[in-house]
DNA sequence: TGTTGAGGATTGTTCAACAATATCCTAGCC
DNA sequence: GGCTAGGATATTGTTGAACAATCCTCAACA
């Protein structure tokens, strides 16, 4: 067993949350989930703690854990921190090894292939990979894991998106452009573009959220 | 019951770690500590989880929990992420409300007062507060809590510092200068100074660590 | 209509027993 | 002498249970 039981259960729950099987706001009953996944309450609670650390769920005393509901303020906040981490990556691009640059280009290609196939869900995943690769240019394990957590949170907001295509399509070309700027060493321009890019993306998500709740 | 047994034990362990009674790298035996603190292993494990969240200890599957030991690579990494977050704060300084700017100045004054009193331990705390205040200019709760965790980790490295005064004294004036640049709107200059500032601080810590291990 | 309180359901805490795993020690081999 | 295999031992992982504390529901009541 390479993974502990709690880690295994946490991974399963994470998948169920990200797939929408366990929707935002849903309460995770200890008794029900313990029965479904065939683990004791103690182990399940340990799994919950792992998810809490990823802030995929929130814990309310004596009330249990709930799948996180993303408020507009959360989206704004997440994009602020993303901007900080991805900017750090872009600024360190000059000192990053070739493998990390190649990884950035690879994610753009991945997104373009998925778009050509009409797999807009996959385009979304590739887009997240692209931004993770940008932050990875900073060569910092702590930045990497912080990015992973942020993007996992953000995935919760995507559930409210009506049309993945309408959201992701405009960014395909911008991702490619950004990757090209990094390749050619136009770091200052890349940094400026990244800022407006993230501002635009944030506004699109906030707009969609407002629509969904109206 | 205001505090659970686990919280009480966690506080006791935290004190023992910070006092050096439980040195970095030391394994926290469930059986031994359970006997000493007169709690069951399960309760002790709950206490461990609280310490893990503060990253005061690390958990290795089937091997137990160990008092965290900071490697030079960790210090380098922490400073990379600090640079990303504090730079984000400085760049957002123009849009930050007055109260946040006042908070920055207040921490500088706090440090100067402690230095005048010869309380170099307090100067160290004030310095951490200063950097937290810088990051806070970004107005992002997630950045704030990430900074808190980074600074808590860094505190472990301070244990290896032979002379708090020699480390902190040179930065008193630089903190004041940085605060002044922000007040007067010299954002670009503040950003540049912050970068070299953090590089210098990192090298000082790395040097002290190398000395301690030699 | 709003409030109060009993009760039932759920989580919080702790425990001790059993299973799974790592570590250490010894014997045998090169 | 140094090294590897494998079994004894020590330690952590997991479980189910018991009990306490808290929240929620819903009916009775002012």
UniProtKB/TrEMBL annotation, chains A, B:
SMART domains referenced in this protein's UniProt entry, alphabetically: FCD, HTH_GNTR
The organism's place on the tree of life at top rank: Bacteria
Alphabetized GO MF terms: DNA binding; DNA-binding transcription factor activity
Every HTH gntR-type domain range: 3-70
SUPFAM superfamilies, A to Z: GntR ligand-binding domain-like, Winged helix' DNA-binding domain
InterPro entries: GntR_C (IPR011711), TF_FadR/GntR_C (IPR008920), Tscrpt_reg_HTH_GntR (IPR000524), WH-like_DNA-bd_sf (IPR036388), WH_DNA-bd_sf (IPR036390)
Transcription among keywords: yes
Keywords, ordered alphabetically: DNA-binding, Transcription, Transcription regulation
PANTHER family (UniProt xref): GNTR FAMILY REGULATORY PROTEIN (PTHR43537:SF45), TRANSCRIPTIONAL REGULATOR, GNTR FAMILY (PTHR43537)
Protein name: GntR family transcriptional regulator
Organism: Streptomyces morookaense (Streptoverticillium morookaense)
Taxonomic placement: Bacteria, Bacillati, Actinomycetota, Actinomycetes, Kitasatosporales
